[in-house]
Write a structure and sequence with these properties.
The protein is an all-alpha fold and 184 residues long. The protein has 2 domains: 102 residues, no CATH class; 80 residues, no CATH class. It is built from 8 helices and no strands. α7 packs across α8. The chain is globular.
Length: 184
């Protein structure tokens, strides 16, 4: 009697993947991206450029060209755009395969610490997103661009970014959620 594949235990169907396997996958992806498009992994430059597409109806093409950032980073269907779209689709497919997909405005860990107000949660999330994006643009790259690609190239700036990010993350988790939640 042959045994069928147990999809619940198959790698792609798990809600949490082995971090070592994912790390190797990201490293291989980085090599492929460098080989094919001669660019590091990164998402914030493309996301910032595409914010120009949102601003274009208000500012016009000439208005975008007059902006020093958008003049260098006009919205385009290129590797960066494909990376944004691929990241979204990959996350959605992973959540659907693992049957872990859910729309959740206020996660339980937030409710436990700060209450169940969706407005408060969305305002804080939006403000955090603005600060993160601003910091990424000031640093010249995001977690994937500065941290992953930089450290894979053995750049001091990449390793400095990664160490700072991890220390900041631990400190922030303790400040926001306390010792009990941060150790979960």
């Amino acid at each position: 009697m042959t045994q069928g594949v147990d999809f619940k235990s198959a790698f792609l169907f798990r809600p949490r993947w082995n971090p070592y396997v994912v790390g190797v996958g990201i490293g291989l992806l980085s090599w492929v991206v460098f080989a094919v498009v001669n660019a590091p992994l990164g998402i914030t430059t493309a996301l910032s450029a595409w914010s120009g597409a949102v601003a274009e109806p208000v500012m016009g093409v000439e208005g975008l060209k007059a902006n020093s950032y958008w003049a260098k980073n006009m919205p385009a269907w290129d590797y960066g755009t494909l990376f944004i779209v691929g990241t979204f689709i990959g996350a959605l497919v992973g959540a659907l395969l693992s049957r872990d997909f859910k729309v959740e405005v206020v996660p339980q860990v937030w409710k436990d610490r700060f209450g169940a107000s969706p407005v408060k949660r969305l305002v804080v999330a939006f403000a955090g997103g603005i600060l993160t994006m601003y910091g990424a643009r000031m640093a010249g790259g995001c977690t994937s661009g500065n941290g992953l690609s930089g450290s894979l190239q053995l750049a001091v700036s990449g390793w400095t970014f990664f160490l700072t990010m991890f220390v900041s993350g631990v400190v922030t988790a303790f400040l926001l959620f306390g010792r009990r939640t941060a150790s979960r």
